[in-house]
Design a protein that fits this description.
4-stranded parallel sheet
């Protein structure tokens, strides 16, 4: 029996066949994949998952592909690290880092969602894929399209970090640098998706693409010893990830793989682009679009597609939303690096900085299991920190020169 029943509108509940569509034609609500969990429960167990590959595909029965995975075969199952030294620094005794900065192939959590989107694009018969991106998605679509033998078109803001542009061009994708911010890029991408027969990862393939993020939550629960944490601090760009982590936990509970889920979700944003955290702090359900102005470019989305649902994920679980300044982002990047040896991009600086702030506020108790989501690698975005970390000591090739430099 098929495990995917079709698509369903999150707002009005209208049902649709499996197809490359993402918006309800009746109410314009977003569509999501509808699964037959009764059928899935017949084959999925802790043992069946543990016998799977050391990738996100160990959860393939909970992902919306009909056949074998065709893209992103090495993505996922990244480390969950007990962050003892970071915990000591910020006063928390049960702190963990979920580290997608070492995801494969392009060092961000986007490798998960793209693996599902491109696999589904192939099943739908596309030979060309595309995306609108703030950088990490661009890298991943380009790389995985190259692996799968697909043509790729990538739309980015024209002020993107150079390393992310290079990390897309190198795979042979056609990169379109749009004069404007991400929200303007995304609007153009939506128009393009309506005209060309391309599989847009985050437009017409969005319901399938988004479910790749569930594996971030699946892995946390399995790696904690088959339990959900008490708190998760998650960066907010488009707003999907925080909802999908929670969905991953709840799926596991529904299938009897973990006990009751009592996890508070926290939305982390930069103060220069905080539509979701601001809505939570001012007790509004609706998002007021902003013009981003922050070094955290990978999450600089002023009008997030899933912003409303991100707000609900935080509010309905008893979590919260918080934001940090540019200096706090850089300080948090450096703190994570010197305590845990993890070099995160700016979005990780946001989550670590917000976690520190939430602990200081007393919103996250200092002894309850807390996971901080690190979603990208700092080598992609060295610009915010390169002038804030000192310089190498210049020495001659002699012991005397070394000792003179160390004595300074």
């Amino acid at each position: 029996m098929p495990k995917v029943l079709g698509l369903k509108c999150k707002e009005c509940g209208e049902h649709y066949e499996k197809a490359p569509i993402h918006v309800c034609e009746y109410c314009f609500g977003p569509l999501e994949v509808e699964y037959d969990y009764t059928e899935i429960a017949k084959t999925v167990s802790r043992a069946s998952i543990e016998a799977g590959p050391p990738t996100m595909w160990r959860y393939r029965d909970l992902l919306p592909l009909d056949g074998e995975p065709r893209a992103g075969l090495q993505a996922g199952f990244t480390p969950l690290i007990r962050a003892k030294r970071l915990g000591e620094a910020i006063g928390h005794s049960d702190l963990w880092i979920k580290n997608d900065a070492v995801n494969c192939p392009t060092m961000s959590f986007k490798d998960r969602v793209v693996a599902v989107a491109l696999g589904k694009a192939i099943e739908f018969g596309y030979d060309t894929v595309a995306c609108a991106s703030t950088g990490n998605l661009a890298n991943s679509v380009a790389a995985q399209a190259a692996q799968a033998g697909l043509k790729a078109y990538v739309f980015i803001p024209d002020d993107l970090e150079r390393s992310k542009v290079v990390g897309t061009l190198v795979y042979g994708a056609t990169v379109l640098a749009v004069r404007g911010n991400y929200d303007e890029v995304n609007r153009l991408a939506s128009e393009v998706a309506g005209k060309y027969k391309w599989g847009f990862a985050n437009v017409n393939l969005r319901p399938f693409y988004g479910d790749g993020s569930k594996t971030f939550g699946h892995e946390i629960a399995e790696q904690l010893g088959w339990r959900a944490p008490r708190h998760v601090v998650c960066p907010i760009g488009g707003g999907s990830l925080i909802t999908k982590i929670l969905k991953g936990f709840r799926e596991f509970h529904q299938l009897g793989l973990i006990d009751e889920v009592d996890c508070r979700m926290y939305a982390a944003q930069a103060a220069g682009c905080n539509p979701v955290s601001l809505a939570i702090k001012t007790n509004n359900d609706m998002i007021r679009p902003q013009k981003p102005n922050t070094i955290a470019k990978s999450i600089a989305i002023g009008n997030p597609a899933d912003g409303y649902y991100a707000v609900q994920a935080a509010k309905t679980t008893g979590g919260w939303g918080e934001d940090v300044s540019e200096d706090e982002i850089v300080d948090a990047i450096k703190l994570l690096a010197r305590t845990e040896g993890i070099f995160t991009e700016t979005a990780g600086g946001v989550t670590v900085g917000v976690a520190k702030k939430l602990i200081e506020q007393g919103r996250i108790p200092r002894d309850e299991t807390t996971v901080i989501a690190i979603t990208g690698n700092g080598l992609k975005t060295i610009e915010p920190v390169e002038d804030r970390i000192g310089e190498p000591l210049p020495i001659a090739a002699s012991l005397a020169s070394l000792e003179k430099a160390l004595a300074m």
